[in-house]
């Protein structure tokens, strides 16, 4: 009986290791999503800055934050640097998307190998979510007639 109990413990340990590994993989994937979103916001900010200063006179004064120090430059000096930074961010985002796809594939293979299935929420929870839809805060809804 002792050997049978130790066998059950070993099986539980393996399941726990698999579960932890899977959770770590999912966490890494979520971190990639978060970082991609953050970098996409930076690209959006760079686009706004480029759109705002591009039509202006190139000799006009412009201020840029470099390493925590505000530096006075001209638009002619700042615009190419902002464009280069934006392009660099877009390249990093592209590489991160590739890493994300690899991670998704790795997780899918792991799920197939260990027959992992994600449990869905109960129907009761979904129904409650539907009932609470009208009480959601932070949502702006226009007039019903439009």
TrEMBL record:
Pfam families: Prefoldin_2
Keywords, comma-separated and alphabetical: Chaperone, Coiled coil
Molecular function as annotated in GO: protein folding chaperone; unfolded protein binding
Biased composition (Basic and acidic residues): 123-134
GO process terms (BP): protein folding; response to cold
Ranges in a coiled coil: 86-113
A single GO cellular-component term on record: prefoldin complex
Annotated stretches, region: Disordered: 123-146
Family, similarity comment: Belongs to the prefoldin subunit beta family.
Identification of the protein by name: Prefoldin subunit 2
Species whose genome carries this gene: Setaria italica (Foxtail millet)
